[in-house]
Every structure is written in C-alpha cells, then in structure tokens.
Amino acid sequence: MKRLMASRRNFITILFVIAVVFFLFMFSGAAKDILNLYGQNSYAYNYDRTKNARSYMAEPDEGGGSSDEKASESAVDMETDDRGFVVCVGESGSISNTVERWCDMHHRSMEFHYRTAQLNIDTENPPVMLVVDGATMSADDIHIIMDINALGIPVVMASMPDSSVIEEDDDIRIFLGIDTLRAGEVELKGVSLYDGFLVGGGFDYDPVSEKQREELMDLLLEVPWYTTLAGTKTYMAGILYDDVYETLPEDEVSHYKNYSLPALVWRNRTENSYVFCVNADYMNDITGVGMLSAMEYEMSEYVIYPVVNAQSTVIVDFPSAAKENDEVMQRQYSRDSVSVERDIIWPDIAAIMERYDQKLTCMVSPKLDYSDGSEPDPATLIYFMKLFKETGAEAGISLTSEYSYSTKDKLTYDYDFLQKTIPEYMIQAAYVGEDDITRSCMQLERIGFKDVKAIVCAPNRNKRMMEYSVDGRIVLRVINEGDRHTFADDLRMRSIQTAMAYSLVMQDMKKVIYPESAEDDWQKVFDRYASYRDTFFGNFDLFEEVTASVAAKRADTFMGIDYAYSRSGNMVKVKSDRTGAYYLLRTHGEVISDVIGGSASSVDDDTYIIYVKNLSATVVLERKEVNPVY
C-alpha cells in the first residue's frame, strides 16, 4: 500500500500556518499586556478645591430656626422661575432638618417656624408647599393650617396629629381625608408601596418567612388604623395579618383588602388645593427627601429638578497585597489571602460587573493588619491594577485597618508603597469609614494624597448624602451596604433615587479576610449581595453606573448649580450656570418629542433623565398616544 506523504511545499505551508497561529496567540497576549496602561487613571480630572471650601450645606441647627435669611434670588436670568419656596412649621428638629435638606437639593429657600401663630402667609407670594409637624398640634393649630390650605397652598402633614384630635373634630377628619379610625394602633404584617409615587415602581415589603422577617423587616409596623375617604389617593398602605380577616363576614373580606387597609401615605384633594398625610416615621430622616419630591410631583402638572445621575459601587479594603490571617484562610479556603482574593473573590466580582455593567471603585489597602511582619507584594497590586484597567474599575485608597493602627502611620506606609509600585496613578477617591472627615482630609493632604477629590464615608441616615469637606473635597456618604439590605434601607434608597438619582453601595472585604462569624464567609457574603442586587437594585439600572470619582464630579455640579425653569405651552425650559448638568423630569401622561440643547432617556413611566450639555435646554412634550380599545 502506497503511503501518503506531504510534499515539501505543503510541509512548509503547514509550518508557516502553525507559526502564524502561535505568533498571533502569543502576540495578542503580549500586546494586551503592553497596551494595558494600568499605571494611569482613566477617570482623572482637574478639580479646584478652593472654590468649595466651607461653602455648601452647613448642617442645620438642631433646634431649627428660621432660614429665610439664606434665601437669595437666582443668579440665573430667566423671565419666570417656578421653583418657589417652602414653609415648615412644628417642633420636630428631625422633620425640619429633612425639609431643609430637600430644599438644599432643589436650591429652594425655606422658612421655619415653631408655632402656627408665627405663620404669616403673603398671598401675593405664597409658598409652593407648607410642611407641618402635626404630632404635637392641637385642633386650633390644625384649623390654622386648614385656613392656609384654603388659600390654595398645598399642605404636607409630615406627622399626624394625635388620633383623639382627629376623632373629636369632623372638620379636621374630612380635611385630612380620613373616613374612620378603626383602631388607635394596629400591628402590620408588612407595607405596600404603590406604583407611580417613588421612582423605580412599587414594592411589597411583606416577609415570606420568619427568617426573612428577622433579617429584613425594620419598618414601623405599629400605627393608627385610618381608612380614607372616597376621592383620596393612597401611595403606601399597611398589609394586615390574615387573622384580622378571619373575624369578618366572608363578603366583606375583599372590600377590606381593597379599600380598608391602614393608610400610611395618602393625598386628599381639598376645595382649592391638596393635603398629603404621612401616618408613619418616614419624614424623620433622609427617607423624607424623596417623599417630598414625589408629593410635589403629585400636586403639579410636571416637575423638573437637578439630580446627580450616578450609581456607584465601592469595594472597601480590596485588594490587599499582603498574605494575612493565614491560619484562618488555609482552614476556610485552603489557600492564602492573596490567592483567595485573586482566584475566588475577583471572578465573582468581575461576573457581577459584567452582568450589570458596573463601574467599581476598589479602595486598596496594601495591608489590613499593620502589626504583623508580612509585607505587601508589588506584583500582586500590579496584577489587580491590570484587571481594573481591563474592566473599567478605578482604584482608590482605604483609610481603615484591622487593628488600632493610627491613620497617619497607615497612610504614610501606604503612600510609600504606592509611590514605588504605581507612581503615576492619580488616586482620586478615599474611603474614611466612620473617621472624622476633617482630620482624614488633613492627613491625606499632609502625607501626599493631594489628588483625592472624593471622600467616601460610612452610611448615616441622619446625615447629608453629600457635602463639601472643610478643604473643599466632595464627601459622598454610603447609602447601602452590599450584603446587608433591610426593607427600611430599600425604602430609603428608593426615596434618595427619586430626589437625587444617586446611589452609593459599599461592600466591606476586610471581614472576609478577618471573619468574625460564619456569615462572613465569602460565598455567603456574595450570595447575599447578588440576591439583594437582583431583588432591590434592578429598577435603577437606567441611572448611569460610574466610579466614585466620577460620581463626585457630578455631585459637585449638583451641589453647586444655580438653575431656573418655566413652562410655556408644551415646552419646558431649564437654564443654569453649570454645563453638563442632569435633571429629572416627571410628567403625567406626557412624553418627550424633542430636547433642544440636550438629550433625554426614559428611566420609569413618565420619568426622564435630561442631560443639558451647555447652560440651557428646552424640552418639547406631547401627550401619549392611547391605542383605542375595540
């Protein structure tokens, strides 16, 4: 049998093809490595801190007080400006603080009074809203509020009067839109948020198991049981336990479930205006800012206001370039901490980034425990920096450490290591945790981190979401922790999204390397984070995912902008003193047909993000086409 043999020409051709394929595989990897400019921050930008030092959003006095002296005319020249001002009355410092923060966000002025007797409404220049802390008010006080509402001024009852005040006065009961008080207090099983109020849609905060109730339910569940009159509009209501219905005749159960649930947030239309009622504690912290934005939308033909348009995720104390807590890591993962971060944690993080198009900010900590003798490996940090470059992540610096190592000594150590490893990389973001912001900024400046613009700090529902530090850096407060998300956290997040189109989620990685319980195992942490991301955060994917330093840049525009807006016919005009600003526009059944001087994207029903490239834009609206039903 004759054997087939390759000719010399064919043999050379085959060798050439093999060589080309080998070269392409080898060269593509080498080229990828060569072209990976991991030592440069793609998000770097210049920022003049001096213009904002000590300039924005000083914390309000705990006792309240009139803030009308802070009111000033808009620096933006426009024939008409529909912003107006707000009046707040009552004894609660927490409610007045919430209102003041909301006014700051919308760049409105605010008047505050302790007593209704101090109210002096100018009918020629009335406020756009009167916010009332009704918890300590008498019937006479409420009647004064009713007289003001009769002038056409919308009223927000940020807290309700005592139930006895309502029961004993039919005029007050009808004014508030209340049909009956079925119980002075009822225990709720859950809470329903209905569609169309807060941006992101509705949600039932209704635990499906006792385990979920223990982990997630932290909303106020003991409230007076008010049912509302016909013609009112309910935005939030309580969910009752099934045993409540067992005492009712069968033919009444459906009516109760549809019309007699305990009302938590609702609107009543009065003769000349509206009154909004809040039968819960939502107005006592930052949750209230989105409620106010939603109420303004519900009382208006449309609303438009500046927002941040930034969704950021910060991974704290990741990566660490040193091998630490080796005994625990070997027992739990059968490898050292560097291998855990490289081979187990990063692939999961990268998968989430790709799935949701996230732009992470990883707050690097060369070491976590500075008291041991291990040294960080430059090659490990460079490896992760290359991964960050490939995936669009940004590196920042973490100021936290495992044990009581001074921030000054930690930063000095970290600065020396980073200067030797990635000397050209501009660090623009820092995580300070719960440390004093002013002191942290001073240490960053003295040690050499002069380019840091974004200061990320731990969550605090009673603090502003963003502000300027004493030296003009942009302080961003974490809203939610990635693997810890309760129902109150979610309502607060939806509210802040409505008011600011802003979210900042933080995931602590130090607890994975130094676990305190079995719940700190990475697989459990990741499973919780992925579950919450799918369940709670998905409705806000249309807001833009950005790194912390980009969020800080947009926050600077949001905090510093002066703007005005007005409507003529089907055209809404907005004008400001800042370029590149974002606005949230909400309409009732109108869609955008054109934006002159900007662009628009839909983020929810009747809700749009408007980008204004220069100083002004005109939004052209038209009614939705309704398909006839035959």
Helical content band: 25-40%
The share of residues in extended strands comes to 15-25%
Low-confidence stretches: 56-73
What's the main sheet like?
A: 9 strands, mixed
- Please state the CA-atom Rg, rounded to the nearest Å: 28 Å
Number of helices: 18
Structural class category: alpha/beta
Widest sheet, order of strands: 2-1-3-4-11-10-9-6-7
The general outline is globular
Average pLDDT number: 88
Beginning-to-end CA distance, first to last residue: 81 Å
| Total E-strand runs | 28
How is the topology of this model organized?
Layout: H1 8-35, E1 86-89, H2 93-105, E2 110-113, E3 129-133, H3 139-149, E4 155-159, H4 163-167, H5 170-175, E5 178-187, E6 190-193, E7 203-205, H6 210-216, E8 222-228, E9 233-239, H7 242-246, H8 250-259, E10 263-269, E11 274-278, H9 287-298, E12 302-307, E13 310-316, H10 326-333, H11 337-356, E14 360-364, H12 378-391, E15 394-398, H13 407-421, E16 429-433, H14 437-447, E17 454-457, E18 466-468, E19 474-477, E20 480-481, H15 487-500, E21 502-508, H16 510-513, H17 522-535, H18 548-560, E22 563-568, E23 571-576, E24 581-587, E25 590-596, E26 598-604, E27 607-612, E28 616-623
Parallel strand pairs: 1-2, 1-3, 3-4, 4-11, 13-14, 13-21, 14-15, 15-16, 16-17, 17-19, 20-21
Antiparallel strand pairs: 5-8, 6-7, 6-9, 9-10, 10-11, 12-24, 18-19, 22-23, 23-28, 24-27, 25-28, 26-27
Description:
Helix 9 packs across helix 15 and helix 13 (407-421) crosses helix 14 (437-447). The model is unreliable at 56-73 (pLDDT under 50). The strands form five sheets. The chain has a nine-stranded mixed sheet, with helices on one face. The protein has a nine-stranded mixed sheet with strand order 18-19-17-16-15-14-13-21-20, sandwiched between helices. With 630 residues, it is α/β, with parallel strands linked by helices. It is built from 18 helices and 28 strands. The protein is globular.
